[in-house]
Protein 1
Amino acid sequence: MDKIKSNEDAFTLLELIIALSIGTVLILLVSFSLRMGLFQIEKGSRWFENSHRENNALHFFCQQATSMRYEEINESVIFDGDPERVVFVTPISLGKSYGLGLMMVSYYLVESDQGVKLNYKEKRFIPDNNLSSFKDQSDLIFDDSEEIEIVSGYEKISFQFLGTVEGSENEKDVSGIDWNDIWLENKLPKAIKIVLSKNGQSKELIAPVMVMY
């Protein structure tokens, strides 16, 4: 009986590994198809198509966030997030054909006469141990990167991050998990939420983080 139970457990674990592997491949394939089919590229990164541009752009953000990679620099996890900005590593690029190479991406808010807009920059991720602190120097990393407008014309845009509530020690306890305006943990969040408000109405997009190593 014990031998049969052990075999069943092993088979279940094998199924889980296969499912995760297939899921990762599907995410990359869908994202690649989305980028090639819905976006036009010029000089590295061209504007999104005018038709359904905003939905395509926000969906691309969700694809990148969902496929986020766990990477470190000097034991600091490459993730930075507050209400106005989020930085992380992903294998998905907007305008470059890097195969399975990694990209460090930054989404950040800019205020203009037309309202708040969400901009984007990306850079090929190459681990560099000479960086003394990722969070202190992350702005400099994107100095020579092209700035791309994702959406604009909103009254307010903000990010939130799902994780353990301060003072909670048990991550499996649902009551100890909530949305945070600023991410202070040295690990990746469980999800990212972006809230967009205009004309008295708000919409939310939630991207679950399927951490890949």
Protein 2
Amino acid sequence: MKLPLILRSLPLSILFGILISCPAFSQTSGAWRLFETKHPVDKKLVALHINDAAGEVVDSSGSIDVTGAFQKAIDLVFGMGGGAIYVPEGRYRFDGSLIIKEGINLRGDFIVPEGQPVSGTIFEVYSGRNSPASNPFITIRGCATLDGFTIWYPEQDAASIVPYPPSIQFVRNSNGRYSKHATRVRCINLVNSYFGIDIGIINTAIPQACHIYGSPLKTGLRHCSKINWHSLC
């Protein structure tokens, strides 16, 4: 967290007293810890567990809508200046949409979907059915990361396909400006997205997409600008 100049000049004892008086810091100060994921790269991660960031036990069985809990967690960490939120293996039901704000790294457990059943951290999306112009499932702003998730639409039927909005859409920052830092989407499995990733014309300065898997039903990726392609699978 980048501190204002006036705070950086204070003695540590006074600065710590100010920080612990902040509700968000008090709620999470003891919860940042090291996690090891099933992700094939960067296996160790210092983050807040989704339960600690949300202030509740977030359902991972796929039976309860967790949209509000996830957005609450993102908003809290954003208010602290940003950081990583770890979402362990499980099934998470979403009846609404998410905004991943600047400086947030939303990180799941990811297993490359090659010759094995889908597993890891799975987002089950129930929003946007037959409403392609509605909000994307995930809107991601500048200097944010979405890393290590499977996105699945349980109500989509391959025999009778219906439209949905994009699973992931890159946008400018909340102040309407382009980000000077990369926005990253990596290690994502789009199982049956109607429209996978929309980078479009209103995007970040350095959009990055790598290790993208899946079988989108209409559009895999749309872009109208320069992209840093590390790998697209």
